[in-house]
C-alpha cells in the first residue's frame, strides 16, 4: 500500500490529518469520510488497548488513509508499530543525532525484514526540549528523517519562558521550521479548528509546510457541543 | 439522584443534550464537560455492547447528567434500561394509546420494585407514523407520558410525501408540538449544529419547548473536521 | 460432562453456589477455589456482554462446577444458554403450567438436537407472583421441572403485603417449599452470608432442601470491606 | 480534585483502602460504597488492559476515592499513570536514594507540565530487599517521598530467613516503620481481613501509622464464600 | 457498495464463502485473503458481542466480500443486521409463506428508509422442518426470496428419520434444490472441506447451484491441526 | 500443574504444538481438541491485549496443554508471563551467554518467590543472529536452558545470504540442532502443514528432536480455505 501522505506532499500538495484519541474506530472512519489524509494515534500519552490500536490501524488502512503514531523512541516499540501497519511517525522530544540515528536504524531493520518499501514509511522528529534545540540541525541533516516538527509551548518551556508568544520563542519556532524547509525536509504543523489559527497555518503552507494536523478530535467535538449554533459551513481547504 | 433534565424543564429552563453513538465513554464525558444536560444512547439502531452501554450510563451518572435512551417498546427492555440507570426515554414510533399505556406500566412496575421515585424518570413518546398521527392526542392525554416529539422526515413518509418542507408536513409537525405544549406536556426537539437550524429551535423554545438535542456527535465531529477553519467561537446558549 | 449439582443432590448431599454478577471470570474461579458447586449468572437483570457470559460459562466448565443462569422464559434464549454450556436454570416468575411446559419443551428440543443427556440439565421454576402462587402445584406436577424456588419478598408483594415476616407470607413460603419436597422435587434456597441466616437455611436442609445459594458476590465483598475486622474463620459447611 | 487520602492523613485520621485486582470497575465501586478512601491497582503484577485500568481510575475519581497504583520505577510508566488520573503510588523494591530521586523527578515533571498540584499526589516507597534495607534512611530523608512501607515476608527473604516471625525480621520491620514515623513520613500498612490481624494494625495506628490497606479483594471474597456462615456484623472502624 | 455474491451468481459464476464463528476479525480477513466471496456470521447460535459483529461486518466491507448472517426471523433483528452492513441472509427454519413475506417486508422497509438498493441485499430461506417442507413451493414463489437452502440432517429429523442417507431424505433434499433452480431461484449449499464432499458439491454446481459455503472455520482448522501432514496443495476451484 | 511438554519429551515422546495468534481463546481450545500438547502465543510480535493473553493462558491450563510464549529477554516481562501462568518460553535472538544467564536468573527468581517448581517451566533460546551463532555453544552449556531452536531464514540473514537452502545455511542449521542434541538439550522445530515438510521434521525427530510446532494457525486456516477440496484424512502422528 502506498503512503497517501507521502504521495500528496511529494507532489506539492498538503496532507491534512486528525488526532484519534478516543479508543474506537469511529474517529478514523469519520476522518476518512471527512476527506482527511491521515489519522494520528498517541499511545505515548493515551491508554489504548493493543487490540484497539490494531483495529484503528486496520480501519485507516481499509479507508486508504495513513495511520500515524506518536510513540517512544524505542526500537521494540517502533518495530511493533510498523508490524501493526503504522506508516507515519512523530517521535517526541528527539534530543540528539544519536537518538535520531537509532530511530532510522529501527525503521531500516523492519524494512529489510518485512519487504515493505522504505518510502511507504514517514519518520518525523519533534524538537521539544533544550537539547533538541541545540541538536536540531544535526537531526535534520540525517537521511531517513523525513519530517520535522516543533511546538511553541514546548519551546517556551525549553527556553525558560512561560509565554509562548514572546519573540524569543516565536523566533526559535520559525527558525526550526524554516531551516527544515530549506534543507528539503517536510514540516508538520498543528492547528486549532478556528478561522484565526487556520490563517496562521496557511502562511506556513505558503512557505512550504505540507503536513497539517487539526487539534485533538475530542476538543473539536467539545468546542462544537459547547457552541453548536456557531457552526457555519463554508468552502473548505480539504476539498 | 435527581433527574437534571426534569429539574431544568420544571423550572422553566431549557435542557440541552447530545447523542452518544460512538461506543465509548468519551462522548458522555465531553458532553458533560461542554455543559450539556443529558446524553442520548441509541441501542434501538446502534450495536453497543451491553457492558459498553452500562459504562456509558455510569459515566453520565458520575458527571451528573441524565442518561437517556431510545429503545424498543418492550417491557423487558424498559426494565433492563432502568436497572442500568437510564432515566430518560424516547420511544420510537408510538402508534396507539395502548402502546403508551404498556410503556407507562413497565416504568411504574420498576418504580414499585426499586424504590426509585417516578419523578426521576422521564418518558417520551415519538410520533413517527400514520397510526401515531391519528392517536397522538390520546397518547399525550395519558398521565405518565412526560414528553412528546416528532420529526418532519418521518411525518412526510407517514403522509406519503417525499418533501418534508411541504405545508401539509410542516402543519402536522407544528400541530403535534403545539397540542402537546397546550396540554402541558414537554416537547423534545432535534437541531443541527448550525446557526440557521438553531434559530428555528429558538422559535420553538419561545413557544414553550424545553428539551433540545444536538444532531449526532459523529456528524458534529465530521462537519468540523471537514471544515475546521469555519469554527468561530461566540456566546453560547448553553452557558 | 456430568452436572455436579445433580450428582450431589441425587446422592442426598447439599450443593452450594455463588452469584457471579461482576462481568469477569474472577468470581467463577473464586467460587470454584472456595469449594462451591455451582455459580449463577443473571443476564435477566444484569448487562453481561455475550462473550463475557460465554467466557464465564467456559470458566465454570473448566473448573468442574455447574454454570447456572436466571433467564427469560423464551425458547430462543433457553436454546442459546444451553448452546453456551449452561446446565442449570432458574426461570423467574413462572406463572402457569403452560409456561412451564414451554420451558420443558425448549430444553427437550435442545437435548434431541445436541445429544446432551437430559439429566445433565436442571430446570428450576421460581414462584414469585400471584398467578404463580395459584398454579404452583400444577407447575411442580410437571415432569421436567426439577427444582422449585420462591422468595418471601416477592410473595409478600404478590399477596399485597409489605412486610415479608407476616404469617401469611411465611406460610405461603413454607407451603411452596414443603409441597415441592413432598412431591420429590428439589428445593432451591437463597441465604445471606451471616450466622443467623445460615441457621435458617440449615433448618430447610434438615427438611430436605438440597440447593443453597449465597447472596450476591458483590454484597459479600462489600460487607467484608465495610467491616473487615469482623471476619472470623470457623469450621465450614462447605468442606 | 483533592487527594482524599492526603486530606485524611494530614488531619490525623486513618485512610483505609482496598486492592482491586479483578479487571472490572466493580471492586472500585464496592470499595467506595463500603466507605473506603482509596483503591489500589497492581499493573506491576496483574494483566489489566490499558483501557480497563483507565476505566477503573475514572470510576475511583467519579466516586471521590483516591486511585492508587503499584507500578515499576520507570519515568514513562509514572508519567502515564499520572496522565491516567492515578494520585497515589507504591513503588516496589526501592533500593537506592538515586532510584527514589528518579521517582520524585518524574512526578515533578508531570506537575510542571500538567498544572496538577504536587500535593494532590502521594509517593510511597516500599523497602523490600537487601539494598533497600541498607538505604532506607537515605530514601526517607528525601523530600518528595511521602510514604514508606515494607513487608515481613520480603524482609525475611532479604535477610536470608524463611520465617517472617523471627525477631531479626520483626525488628527490621518495626525499625523501618518507626524511623519513618519519627522522620514525619507517613506509613502504609497491609492487613488481613480478620479480627486478629486488625488488632496488630490498630497498634501501629496508635504509633502513628495512617494508611491501611485490606488484603486483596479476591481473597476477601474467597474467605467469605468458603465460610459464609461466619460473617458477623459489628461496629466498624470505617464508619 | 455492490453485493459481490449477487454479481457473481447473476453472471453465472459460483460464489464461495466461509463461516466466521470465532469472535474476531481474523477469519474475515483470512477468508478475503484466501479469495473467497462472502463470510457468514451466526448470531442465531453463537455469542458474538454486538461490537464484535459490527467490527467483523466492517472488516468484510473493507475487504470487498459480502457479510452474510444467519439470524432470527424477526423484523427488529433484520433491521439491525441491515443497519450494521449485513447484505446476505440465511433465515433458519422458514416454515410458512407468511413468515417469508414478513422477512421480505422487513427488508423492503429498510430499503425505503435507507436508500440502499434492494439488489444489494440477498435473502435466503432455509427449509429445515416439516412445515417448511410442506410450504417450500409457496415460499420460493415469493418475489424477494432470492435463495433457497436445506440440509439433509434437518430434513431427516423433519421426516422422522435418523439416517440422512435414506432415499426419502435424499429425494426431499434434491426436490427442494431442483424445484428452486427450476423456478430461477439461487441455491445455497454447504460442503465439508474434503475431496469427496467437494465432488458432490460440483455435481450440484453443474445443475445450477451458485452459492457454496465451506464448513465452519474452526472445524477446518481443527481438521488440519489434527493431521497437518495430510495437507496437499493442488489447483483450486477458488482461483 | 505438571508441564505436559516436559512430561512427554522426558519420556522420549514428541510434543506437538500450535501457534495461537488470533486474539481469542478459540485456537487454544481447538488445539486442545485436536490432541496437541502446547500452544504458543507471540506477544513479541503480536498485539494481544493483556486480558486476552490472560484468558488464552487460562484456557490452555484448563485444557491441560502447556501455554508457551515468545517474549522479550526482559526480567519484568518474564516475571509477568510466569505470573500469568505461562510455562514454556522461546526467547528470540539470544545473542550472548550473559543474556541467557539473565533469562535463567529471572525464571529462578520467580521459582523462589512463587513456590512453582522449576521443572514445571521450560526455557528455550532461539539462535537467530550472528552473535548468537558465535555464542550458541556457551548458551547451550548453561544449566537452566532446556531447549534450543533456530531457523534457516534467520540464519541466512545472519550469514549474509538470501537463499536459505544454500549449504552454508543448512550446515549452520544442522550444526546447532545436532550440537544441542549431543549436549542433551531438547530441540524445538517448526514445520509447515504439508506432507513434504512433515517428512523433514520426521528426520529430525529420528535424530532426537522432541518439540514440534505447526506453522501459524491463520496460515493453516488460509491454506485450507484456499483449497478446501484438497484435504484428505489419513492416519495422524498426533494420535
From TrEMBL, chains A, B, C, D, E, F:
Keywords: Lyase, Metal-binding. The keyword Lyase applies. Its EC number is 4.1.2.52. SUPFAM superfamilies: Phosphoenolpyruvate/pyruvate domain. InterPro entries: Aldolase/citrate-lyase_domain, HpcH-HpaI_aldolase, Pyrv/PenolPyrv_kinase-like_dom, Pyrv_kinase-like_dom_sf. It holds the Pfam family HpcH_HpaI. Gene3D superfamilies: Phosphoenolpyruvate-binding domains. The keyword Cytoplasm does not apply. It is an enzyme of class 4 (lyase). Residues 26-195 form the HpcH/HpaI aldolase/citrate lyase domain. GO terms for molecular function: lyase activity. PANTHER family: 2-KETO-3-DEOXY-L-RHAMNONATE ALDOLASE, PHOSPHOENOLPYRUVATE CARBOXYLASE FAMILY PROTEIN. Belongs to the HpcH/HpaI aldolase family. This is 4-hydroxy-2-oxoheptanedioate aldolase. The lineage of its organism: Bacteria, Pseudomonadati, Pseudomonadota, Alphaproteobacteria, Hyphomicrobiales.
Amino acid at each position: 500500500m502506498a503512503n497517501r501522505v507521502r504521495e500528496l506532499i511529494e507532489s506539492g500538495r498538503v496532507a491534512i490529518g486528525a488526532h484519534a484519541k478516543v479508543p474506537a474506530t469511529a474517529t478514523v472512519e469519520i476522518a476518512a469520510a471527512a476527506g482527511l489524509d491521515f489519522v494520528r494515534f498517541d499511545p505515548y500519552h493515551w491508554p489504548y488497548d493493543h487490540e484497539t490500536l490494531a483495529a484503528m490501524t486496520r480501519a485507516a488502512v481499509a479507508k486508504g488513509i495513513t495511520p500515524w503514531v506518536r510513540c517512544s523512541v524505542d526500537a521494540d516499540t517502533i518495530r511493533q508499530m510498523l508490524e501493526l501497519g503504522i506508516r507515519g511517525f512523530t517521535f517526541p522530544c528527539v534530543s540528539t543525532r544519536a537518538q535520531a540515528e537509532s530511530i532510522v536504524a529501527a525503521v531500516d531493520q523492519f524494512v529489510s525484514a518485512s519487504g515493505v518499501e522504505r518510502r511507504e514509511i514517514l519518520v518525523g522528529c519533534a524538537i521539544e526540549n533544550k537539547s533538541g534545540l541545540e541538536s536540531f540541525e544535526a537531526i535534520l541533516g540525517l537521511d531517513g528523517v523525513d519530517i520535522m516538527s516543533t511546538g511553541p509551548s514546548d519551546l517556551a518551556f525549553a527556553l525558560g519562558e512561560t509565554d509562548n508568544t514572546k519573540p524569543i520563542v516565536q523566533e526559535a519556532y520559525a527558525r526550526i521550521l524554516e531551516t527544515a524547509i530549506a534543507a528539503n525536509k517536510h514540516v508538520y504543523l498543528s492547528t486549532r479548528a478556528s478561522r484565526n489559527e487556520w490563517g496562521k497555518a496557511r502562511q506556513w503552507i505558503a512557505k512550504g509546510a505540507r503536513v497539517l494536523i487539526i487539534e485533538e478530535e475530542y476538543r473539536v467535538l467539545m468546542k462544537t457541543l459547547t457552541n453548536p449554533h456557531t457552526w457555519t459551513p463554508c468552502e473548505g481547504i480539504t476539498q
